[in-house]
Specification:
294 residues; alpha/beta; two-stranded antiparallel ribbon; globular
């Protein structure tokens, strides 16, 4: 690679991240009127994976699509490995992220938006509803009771994010936007996955659109990858945090909420140990889970 290619590549990724955030905000829909008098200044932004829901929402979606013959078991294993590496190791390498994105988009290319929305409702009932953390759900309700708008912010497809938000009675959702023409997915994204800086860009768009005040807003996440979003608001909170986010939150005096058991907390304490475990055992564990889900 030419020596000066890296800065150009980084600028291109930043531009695609901003585009992803803008696209997500533009596609977001307000699901319901709040029962309490709306607060004109405050909102709460919740990451989904391991914050609102145990595990990765995209994996629960993939399980449901696999059962409906969208793709093969081999495809599911490949996608699961990409997702696991991305979540555990926190790799920001552009080639790795592009590969993971390509695998995920192949699942829905050629299918319709309406089809994914309908299946998303079924998959929520089958795989997601029982995975919601009660503690985080209570935090979201606390905000709703005070008239705060409550948004999900996730790398999952925006159609699925909106299903989760609607079923939890939240204001709306921000998620990854997949390109579609005449209601049929093309297999391409608008911008990038809603991750890292893209989440921060999406939150800025919603804040500007809704006339909110960032200093009055709240954000919740489990991952240090979401530091750009958490650092935007006046009230950040680490929920079920990874090691890096826990350390950062402690140093900054942020609130920390942990709803996992002691065993699960210990597991996420060291990325190296978890990565080694994932490398050694992922394929075996995933095959067992897939067989059980049939």
């Amino acid at each position: 690679m030419p020596r000066d290619a890296t800065p150009d590549r980084h600028r291109n990724l930043q531009a695609r991240s901003v585009l992803a955030g803008q696209a997500s905000a533009a596609s977001a829909q307000i699901e319901q009127e709040l029962s309490a008098a709306p607060d004109p200044t405050a909102a709460a932004f919740f990451d989904v994976d391991n914050t609102v829901m145990q595990g990765a929402s995209i994996f629960h979606l993939a399980r449901g699509l696999h059962r409906r013959d969208f793709f093969t078991t081999r495809d599911l294993l490949k996608a699961t490995w990409q997702q696991l590496w991305f979540r555990v190791v926190g790799s920001e390498d552009a080639d790795h992220i592009a590969n993971a994105r390509a695998v995920g988009l192949a699942f829905i290319a050629g299918h319709t938006v309406a089809e994914l929305e309908d299946i998303g409702e079924e998959i929520f009932d089958e795989h997601m509803a029982a995975k919601i953390w009660p503690g985080t759900r209570a935090l979201a309700q606390w905000h709703l009771d005070r008239g705060h708008r409550v948004w999900l912010v996730t790398a999952a497809p925006i159609e699925i994010a909106q299903v989760i938000a609607r079923r939890l009675g939240l204001t709306g959702a921000l998620g990854t936007v997949s390109e579609h023409v005449d209601g049929v997915y093309t297999g391409r994204l608008v911008g990038e996955m809603l991750h890292g800086e893209s989440k921060a860009a999406a939150v800025r768009e919603i804040v500007a659109r809704e006339g909110l005040v960032l200093e009055e807003c709240y954000a919740y996440s489990d991952s240090s990858n979401d530091l750009p979003m958490l650092s935007l608001v006046g009230h950040p909170c680490a929920v079920n945090p990874d090691y890096a986010l826990r350390a950062h939150a402690k140093a900054q005096g942020w609130r920390v909420r942990d709803y996992r058991t002691g065993r699960k907390v210990a597991l996420v304490g060291g990325k190296g140990a978890v990565a080694a475990l994932a490398t050694a055992g992922t394929w075996h564990v995933m095959r067992r889970r897939i067989k059980q889900s049939r």
